[in-house]
Amino acid sequence: MTRTANLGTALVTGASAGIGATYADRLARRGYDLVLVARDEARLSALAGKLQEQYGIAVAVMRADLSASADVRIVEKRIREDAAITLLVNNAGIGPKGALLADDIDYLDTMIALNVTAANRLAVAAAQAFAARGKGTIVNIASAVAIVPELFNGAYSGTKAFVLAFTQSLARELDGTGVRLQAVLPGLTRTEIFDRAGGSIDNLDQNHVMDVNDLVDAALAGLDQGELVTIPSLPEKADWEKLEATRFSLGPNISRNKPAVRYTAA
Question: Which residues are known to be catalytic?
């Protein structure tokens, strides 16, 4: 297949499998050239070859461990200096190995370095570069547990709550610059992340597990519709809008010069 559009280059992190690899396929289908980033260079190269042949696009491969600061800075440099990059899919991440109290704290530090520190640095770099260019799109992959943290490991939920809040705040700061933001909040998704964490997606209620192709297609539809926050399985957009309206209604009272009466009545 030959390309039908020139949309620039999309840089996708965590692109060797799962959500990242599926984004790579869908964006290639749309006409983007690609920069694929992950630790597994062999799998990246195999995917690159397949996408080049199938869609007639250019694909570059960057081997990087985004839990390592030096590798993050290499990818950051590419984002800042390559003016062809118009889209960042900030997808790289890992999940916990189990309940928080039973988890390995060193592993949790690695998870935070990847899910938060690397995601933050690459998104800020993209935001600065895209704002200077007057266009660009940043897609940050969060999780549904960002809004229901009680359902999962607290450290992991916290990393995804960071991604959501970060995206919402950054979108406000970038308003009027020509840069688009989206946070995607998947629920349970059939990917390798569970196997890597020592579990199996097959042990979960399959009524709550989404196919990765359906997830990415829904996320891209949300991006096309201009959504800042996309929850692929949420039937009614109005439910999210109600939650946001309630949150904003707290605004006048979250910072005042006196404590609330209930804290002083005694």
Answer: 156
